[in-house]
Amino acid sequence: MKQLPNLDAFVKNLIDKGFNGYFQTEVAYSGKLKESITEYMKASNNGKERADRNGNFLLSTYLQWSGDDNPSIVCDFWVRQENDGFDIQKMEITNKDRYGKLLKKSELKNLSINSIPTLKEAIAQVSVFHQQKLSSRKRGFRL
Length: 143
Description:
The model has no long low-confidence stretch (mean pLDDT 86). By secondary structure, this protein is an alpha+beta fold. The chain is 22% helix and 34% strand. The protein has a six-stranded antiparallel sheet, covered by helices on one side.
């Protein structure tokens, strides 16, 4: 069995990969990465929260957000806690337009904390580049 990193090492690895914004753990505990997970862990220890049957909990963050009127990229991590160690089981990156319609989605499974992509690589996986549409109509003079 491999040794899982503790909370401090887990947070450091994610921050080193560029994930240093605000997070939300289990849709309720928001803040910087360490404080969000810590608040969730306190609630979990008090019996207010419970991880799923596999011991996973959801950790979400925006990778790119520039207001409600613009597209956004969201990243969801399914984190497994085992004893005092943390590991990432699955990562889902979604690019949605300003109305919430899915533009592109990427799902990565069988990950570890060291194998997750960096922030820029994650954004590149779901970036949508629009090609300029050319008119099919012939231009010119008609007689």
